[in-house]
C-alpha cells in the first residue's frame, strides 16, 4: 500500500495509534471487476503489555510491546475460503478480530469491497459495512448469552442494524435462519443451556447469518466440538457457502480441517505469514520448513505405529522473538543469513513464501 | 497374565432423581507393556474409567459393581490408605493440564523427590539424583539447574515432561494418561507422544491412553477401545479398528474425521448427539443414530461379540439372529 512509509513510523508509537490514512485512489483502482472481496495489507497489531506506571517508575521496568500481528497481507476472492493455521500465540485470532473491527490495526488496513473498512467502521455508514462482515467464535458456551432465549440471540443483529423492526416478521426470519442451520423454529423459545455444543455452534452460525453478510470470519469454530459434531458443523458451513456465495476466513490449528474447508491456506508463525498457497499446492508440496514441520507433526490415522523424530524446540516468547527469521532456532536449514535478516514474503513459483532457504534454492 | 483386568465395572452417581449410570458394564484387560487406547467423544466415560482405576472417583461417584484387578489383586475396594500406596507406586497418572497437576508453590525437584521418597526406600541425595536422571530421560535440557525451578518457569510442553517424570518416578507398571496432549500445540504434542511411547517401552510400563484424537491412538497404541455412552462399543487391535471398523459407531466416527491425506467434498456425519445419562435408550445405546438399526437393537442390549479380529457390541455380528431379523 502507498502508506507503508508513513505507517512504519506509527509502528514504534503506542498501540492505539492513528489509523493509517485511507487507501486513496490506488485501492479503488485495484478493486474493479473480479477484484478480491477482502484485501488485508500489511495488517499489524501491537499490544502494550507494560507493567503499570508505578512499577515502571519505581522498579525501572521498561515498557513492553508485543507484536501480535506483524505485517500480514492477503486477499480473499468472493465465494472462497482462506484458512489461517498456526500454533497458539501466532496471532491468528488477532487477525480475525482486526478483520471484523474488534481491534484497530496499529499499522496497515483492510479493504473490503473497495472500501477502507477501518475508516468506514468509524462513520455512521460503517454500521452497514459491519452488517456485511460477521464473526463466529470458538467457544459456543461463552459466545451466547445464557440469559437470553434463542430468538433474542439470533434476532439481535437484525434489531441492532434496524433491518427488521416488526416483531412477527422478526420471528419468521429467526425461524428461517434456524431452519437453514438444521435446527427447528420451535427451538426459538429455548435457552442456550438446553442445547448441546454442536447445536449451540449452529445457533451462533444462525446469528452470524442474520444480517445476510458476505464475509464470515470463523475463529476456530469447531475446535471445542467432538469429531462427529464437528463434521455436522463443517458440512453446514460448506453448504451455506455454496448456497449463499459466502466468503470465509477460517482460522484453525487443525490442518486436517483446514484441508477440508479451504481454497487457500496461510501459515502463520509469531505474527507473520510464512507461507500462503492454494490448498492443493500447500498439502502436496509444502515449501516452508515450518509448514513441513506442522504437516509432519500431525498424527495420521493411517500411519499406524509410525515412529518418528518430531522437530524439537517450542514457539519462542513473542515478547522477545529471535532475530532474523523467527523460526531459525527450530529450523533444520538455518544459516547465518537466517539468523540476521528477516525474510520477506516473496512470490516464488506461484507460492508466497518467507524463507531464505527456499529463495536461495537450498531446499 | 494380564496386568490390569477390569470386569463388568459399573460407576454410578446417586442423585435426587435416581441414580445415573455413567459407566455400564465395562470389561477389558491390559497386558504388561501394552498400550491400550481409549477413545470416544466427550461424555462417553473415558476419563471416568481412568479415574475408577486409579481410585480417584469424585464423590458422589462410586463403583456400583464389578471389579478391578491389578496383577490379580482387587484394588477397587481397598481402603484409602492402601490405595495411596498403590497409586504412584504401581499406577502412575498423567492428566490433561500439566499446570494444575503440579503444585505451584514447590520446585519441581521437591515434588519429584517427595514422590520418590514416598514410594521407594532411598535417601534424599539418591532421590535427587534419580529425579535429575528422570528429568534428563524426559528430555529436559540442563536438568541439574531446572530441578530447582518452579512449574510456572516451564513452558506447557516442558511441564508435561515434568508430569511424565513424576508419573514414572516410582517405576509403576501401569500409567493412566488422560488426554496428555490435548492442551498442547501440534508440534509439542508430537514430541510428548513420542516421549511417552518410547519411555514406557524402555521401562516396560503399560499405558492406558485416554484421548479423543484418533491420530494419536493410531500412532501410539497396540489396541484400542472405542467408548460410547458409558459402554465399550468396540475393542481390538488398532489397525483393525481403524481400517476395518465393525461397529457402526466406530465406522461413522472414522468417516467423520477430516483426513489430512484425502480430499473429500463432504464429511460423513452421524446425526444427533450422544444421549444424556438420564435418557440412554433401551437396547443398544447407539440405536437412534445408527444407520443399520433393526428391531432387536431397540429392545435388547448387545454384549461384546467377536467381529473379525475385534469385538464389537453390535447385533449385526450375532450372525444367525441378525439374518433372521
What does this structure look like?
The complex is a heterodimer of chains A (363) and B (325). With 363 residues, chain A is an alpha/beta fold. Chain A has two domains: 4-269, 3-Layer(aba) Sandwich (Rossmann fold); 282-300 and 311-359, no CATH class. Chain A is built from 15 helices and twelve strands. In chain A, a hairpin with a 2-residue loop joins strand 9 and strand 10. The longest helix of chain A has 18 residues, at 227-244. The radius of gyration of chain A is 22 Å and the shape is globular. Chain B has twelve helices and twelve strands. Chain B has helices at 46-53, 80-89, 108-119, 124-137, 143-146, 156-168, 186-203, 214-220, 238-243, 248-256, 295-299, 319-324; strands spanning 4-15, 18-30, 35-39, 62-70, 73-74, 91-94, 174-178, 206-211, 223-228, 231-237, 305-307, 310-312. Chain B has an eight-stranded mixed sheet, sandwiched between helices. Chain B is globular, with a radius of gyration of 21 Å. At the A-B interface, helix 9, helix 10, helix 11 and helix 13 of A face helix 7, helix 8, helix 9 and helix 10 of B.
Brief rundown of the structure:
In chain A, 35% of the residues lie in helices and 19% in strands.
Q: Using DSSP, what is the number of strands of chain A?
A: 12
Structural class of chain B: alpha/beta
- What low-confidence regions of chain A span 5 or more consecutive residues with pLDDT below 50? 1-32
Number of helices of chain A: 15
Helix content of chain A: 25-40%
The whole-number mean of residue pLDDT values of chain A reads: 85
Name of the CATH architecture of the largest domain in chain A: 3-Layer(aba) Sandwich
The shape of chain B is globular
CATH superfamily descriptor of the largest domain in chain A? P-loop containing nucleotide triphosphate hydrolases
How much helix is in the residues of chain B?
Answer: 25-40%
The arrangement of helices and strands of chain A along the chain is HHEHEEHEEHHEHHHEHEHEEHHHEEH
Name the strands of the widest sheet of chain B in spatial order: 6-7-8-3-9-10-12-11
- The total beta strand count of chain B reads 12
Percent of sequence in beta strands of chain A: 15-25%
Q: Strand-and-helix sequence of chain B, N→C?
A: EEEHEEHEHHHHEHEHEEHHHEEH
| Top CATH class of the largest domain in chain A | Alpha Beta
Amino acid at each position: 500500500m502507498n502508506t507503508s512509509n508513513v505507517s512504519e513510523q506509527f509502528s514504534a508509537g503506542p498501540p492505539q495509534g492513528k489509523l493509517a490514512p485511507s487507501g486513496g485512489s490506488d485501492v479503488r483502482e485495484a478493486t474493479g471487476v473480479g477484484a478480491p472481496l477482502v484485501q488485508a495489507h500489511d495488517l499489524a497489531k501491537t499490544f502494550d503489555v507494560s507493567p503499570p506506571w508505578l512499577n515502571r517508575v519505581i522498579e525501572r521496568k521498561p515498557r513492553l510491546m508485543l507484536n501480535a500481528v506483524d505485517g500480514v497481507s492477503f486477499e480473499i476472492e468472493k465465494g472462497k475460503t482462506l484458512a489461517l493455521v498456526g500454533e497458539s500465540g501466532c496471532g491468528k485470532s488477532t487477525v480475525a478480530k482486526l478483520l471484523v473491527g474488534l481491534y484497530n490495526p496499529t499499522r496497515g488496513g483492510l479493504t473490503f469491497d473497495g472500501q477502507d473498512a477501518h475508516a468506514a467502521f468509524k462513520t455512521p455508514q460503517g454500521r452497514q459495512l459491519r452488517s456485511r462482515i460477521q464473526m463466529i467464535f470458538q467457544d459456543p458456551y461463552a459466545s451466547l448469552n445464557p440469559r437470553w432465549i434463542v430468538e433474542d440471540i439470533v434476532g439481535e443483529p437484525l434489531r441492532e442494524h434496524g433491518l427488521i423492526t416488526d416483531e412477527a416478521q422478526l420471528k419468521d426470519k429467526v425461524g428461517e435462519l434456524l431452519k437453514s442451520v438444521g435446527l427447528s423454529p420451535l427451538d426459538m423459545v429455548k435457552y442456550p443451556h438446553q442445547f448441546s455444543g454442536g447445536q449451540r455452534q449452529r445457533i451462533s452460525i444462525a446469528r452470524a447469518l442474520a444480517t445476510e453478510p458476505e464475509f464470515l470470519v470463523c475463529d476456530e469454530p469447531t475446535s471445542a466440538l467432538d469429531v462427529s459434531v464437528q463434521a455436522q458443523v463443517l458440512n453446514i458451513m460448506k453448504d451455506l457457502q455454496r448456497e449463499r456465495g459466502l466468503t470465509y476466513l477460517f482460522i484453525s490449528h487443525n490442518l486436517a480441517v483446514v484441508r477440508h474447508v479451504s481454497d487457500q491456506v496461510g501459515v502463520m508463525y509469531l505474527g507473520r505469514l510464512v507461507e500462503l498457497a492454494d490448498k492443493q499446492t500447500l498439502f502436496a508440496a509444502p515449501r516452508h520448513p515450518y509448514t513441513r514441520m506442522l504437516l509432519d507433526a500431525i498424527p495420521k490415522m493411517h500411519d499406524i505405529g509410525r515412529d518418528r523424530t518430531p522437530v524439537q524446540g517450542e514457539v519462542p516468547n513473542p515478547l522477545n522473538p529471535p532475530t532474523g527469521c523467527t523460526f531459525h532456532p527450530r529450523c533444520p536449514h538455518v544459516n547465518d543469513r537466517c539468523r540476521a535478516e528477516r525474510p520477506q514474503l516473496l512470490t516464488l513459483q506461484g507460492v508466497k513464501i518467507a524463507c531464505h532457504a527456499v529463495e536461495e534454492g537450498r531446499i | 497374565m494380564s496386568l490390569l483386568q477390569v470386569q463388568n465395572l459399573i460407576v454410578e452417581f446417586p442423585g435426587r432423581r435416581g441414580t445415573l449410570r455413567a459407566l455400564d458394564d465395562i470389561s477389558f484387560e491390559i497386558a504388561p507393556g501394552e498400550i491400550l487406547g481409549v477413545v470416544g467423544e466427550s461424555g462417553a466415560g473415558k476419563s471416568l474409567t481412568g479415574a475408577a482405576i486409579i481410585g480417584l472417583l469424585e464423590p458422589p461417584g462410586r463403583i456400583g459393581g464389578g471389579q478391578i484387578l491389578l496383577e490379580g489383586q482387587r484394588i477397587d475396594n481397598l481402603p484409602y490408605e492402601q490405595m495411596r500406596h498403590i497409586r504412584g507406586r504401581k499406577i502412575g497418572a498423567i492428566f490433561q493440564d500439566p499446570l494444575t497437576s503440579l503444585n505451584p508453590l514447590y520446585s519441581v525437584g521437591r515434588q519429584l523427590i517427595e514422590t520418590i521418597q514416598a514410594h521407594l526406600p532411598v535417601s534424599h541425595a539418591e532421590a535427587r539424583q534419580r529425579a535429575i536422571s528422570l528429568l534428563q530421560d524426559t528430555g529436559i535440557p540442563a536438568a541439574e539447574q531446572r530441578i530447582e525451578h518452579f512449574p510456572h518457569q516451564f513452558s506447557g510442553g516442558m511441564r508435561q515432561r515434568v508430569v511424565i517424570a513424576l508419573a514414572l518416578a516410582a517405576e509403576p507398571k501401569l500409567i493412566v494418561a488422560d488426554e496428555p496432549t490435548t492442551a498442547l500445540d501440534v508440534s509439542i504434542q508430537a514430541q510428548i507422544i513420542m516421549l511417552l511411547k518410547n519411555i514406557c517401552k524402555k521401562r516396560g510400563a503399560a499405558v492406558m491412553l485416554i484421548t479423543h484424537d484418533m491420530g494419536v491412538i493410531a500412532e501410539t497404541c497396540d489396541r484400542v477401545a472405542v467408548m460410547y455412552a458409558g459402554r465399550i462399543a468396540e475393542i481390538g487391535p488398532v489397525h483393525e479398528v481403524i481400517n476395518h471398523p465393525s461397529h457402526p459407531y466406530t465406522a461413522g466416527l472414522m468417516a467423520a474425521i477430516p483426513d489430512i491425506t484425502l480430499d473429500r467434498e463432504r464429511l460423513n456425519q452421524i446425526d444427533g448427539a450422544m444421549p444424556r445419562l438420564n435418557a440412554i435408550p433401551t437396547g443398544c445405546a447407539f440405536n437412534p443414530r445408527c444407520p443399520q438399526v433393526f428391531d432387536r437393537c431397540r429392545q435388547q442390549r448387545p454384549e461384546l461379540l467377536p467381529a473379525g479380529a475385534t469385538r464389537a457390541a453390535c447385533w449385526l455380528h450375532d450372525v444367525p439372529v441378525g439374518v433372521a431379523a
